[in-house]
Amino acid sequence: MVRSLRFYRIIRTLLHYGLDDLIPKRWQPWYLRTVRVTCFWLRNRHKDKPLGVRLRLALEELGPVFVKVGQMLSTRRDLLPPEVITQLAMLQDNVPPFSGEVAQRIIEKALEIERIDQAFVDFVQRPMASASIAQVHSASIRLESGDIKDVVVKVIRPDIRDTIHADLELMESIAALAARYLPDGRRLKPKEVIREYRKTLLDELDLLREAANAIQLRRNFNQSDVLYIPEVYTKFTRHNVMVMERIAGVPVGDVDTLRAQGVDLKLLAERGVDIFFTQVFRDSFFHADMHPGNIFVDPSNPNDPRYLAIDFGIVGTLNREDKRYLAENFIAFFNRDYRKVAELHVDSGWVPDYINIEEFESAIRTVCEPIFEKPLKDISFGGVLLNLFNTARRFEMEVQPQLVLLQKTLLYVEGLGRNLYPDLDLWKTAKPYLERWMHEQIGWKAMWRSLKANAPYWVEKLPEMPTLLYDTLRQSQSSIKLSQSYMEDIMRQQQEAAESRIWAFGASTLAIATLALGLMLDEPWWAALTGVASAIGWYKAWSDRPKHFMQ
């Protein structure tokens, strides 16, 4: 009953904003049009607004889960028109906070304390910020050294799990219907989109996972002057509560303030690109939610600005093969070597090996060559990746979740960089990094690093080498003897089979002769004689058959 009521409210909201217009009239089956006319009280009340605006407003009204869906869809420019994407990108996570008293009780229960002052020197019930999944409170803790440290306490919304699971089930049902009945349902892959969204959203609900991500990123950039990751206090962190160092900085989107404080915006933009490629290619572990709300700038040294990052619920990883193929793809693309791009997609397993390489190469050239009519600084790196993936999908490229996250993050980074410094030449900044990384992977330095990395293992195994060598030689000798035995067995079976076939052929001939003589001659003893000979032949064929097949 509750699910049915929620489903009705969702449908009512969607129809009040006229979102049935998202489905072209020619795609709407007769029964859907009939239902729409029948529900006359659910008319479009916002006809004066563009479709993208209506979609954004509807998602905001439906609540946190749908806001997150809109934010995710805003990165999928292959699914929706640009004007709709622009509106979805405006979706904010500013939702009404829940009671500070309730938050305090959640914290006390999670930390197994009776009073909040047993964990915090100071705790402010009024939230600093409120988002769809959690809200944040300011507090202070006493360190083991006795110093007081300002922190933020992130608390998952109460009962949000039940709401999320219920809404996800409804979304999956709607996605299944869309995939089945919409003519373009297979291309849009609504079920895959919701499945990807489910995993991302459920991961964000576990603050222990987020804390582990933050600790890993902080370790990766521990000595860095370009990115600072706040410290997480694991003593006070649970699945639904996380305590982290409080930082102070200017939001990266507040360009006017950064400019007023004299921050070197060109350097800041270039450092953002450097941070992204360092995370992807050096660490294979990157912050995958780098939208402006999660990135700040430390302006204390304007000529040497540093980024500050928060919210580590979504991270991406790439394996060694993906990193190498991705770097080679970028380099080949900007060298206009489309044959190489096509071959790399096949070699990496992203595209099936039975695809016609020539046709694939031609498709990539057709889509991507016009890009080079623009200056390099005007070429969208994220757009390049999007064009490659969209073209590859026509050639049966499977959805690669790690690459979808990478594409989304690259679009964020590119948007941030060009917002800070519109003339940012992303390729000029990134190409030396990619070429240097490739050189390190395939040159003599890479071989030396591999030797150094494996040396402790080899040293550990060195005392065992004589025994392993002796065992290997014994096994080799046994294998040779066994192979010889098998060969002799096979030859014996072949000889027996040949003899059996000869006897069977002779017996068959005599059987035919017996039948002919019995019909043609009046004296039966000739037929009897050939019949006995045929029987003897059949007996010999059976007795000489290969006996080994019976084992």
Automatic annotation (TrEMBL):
Limits of the ABC1 atypical kinase-like domain: 91-345
Stored Pfam families: ABC1 (PF03109)
Q: Does the keyword NAD apply?
A: no
**Binding sites annotated in the UniProt record for ATP:** 128-136, 154
What Enzyme Commission number does this protein have? 2.7.-.-
What keywords were assigned to this record?
Answer: ATP-binding, Cell inner membrane, Cell membrane, Kinase, Membrane, Nucleotide-binding, Transferase, Transmembrane, Transmembrane helix, Ubiquinone, Ubiquinone biosynthesis
Named in its record, the pathway it takes part in is:
Cofactor biosynthesis; ubiquinone biosynthesis [regulation]
The answer to keyword Transferase applying to this record is yes
Q: Where is the active site?
A: 289
State the InterPro entries in the record.
ABC1_dom, Kinase-like_dom_sf, UbiB, UbiB_bact, UbiB_kinase
Q: What class of enzyme is it?
A: transferase
| Function recorded in the entry | Is probably a protein kinase regulator of UbiI activity which is involved in aerobic coenzyme Q (ubiquinone) biosynthesis.
- Similarity comment text for this entry: Belongs to the protein kinase superfamily. ADCK protein kinase family.
Q: Which HAMAP family match?
A: UbiB
PANTHER family assigned to the protein according to its UniProt record, in alphabetical order: CHAPERONE-ACTIVITY OF BC1 COMPLEX CABC1 -RELATED, PROTEIN ACTIVITY OF BC1 COMPLEX KINASE 7, CHLOROPLASTIC
Q: What is this protein called?
A: Probable protein kinase UbiB
Q: What is the lineage of its organism?
A: Bacteria, Pseudomonadati, Pseudomonadota, Gammaproteobacteria, Alteromonadales
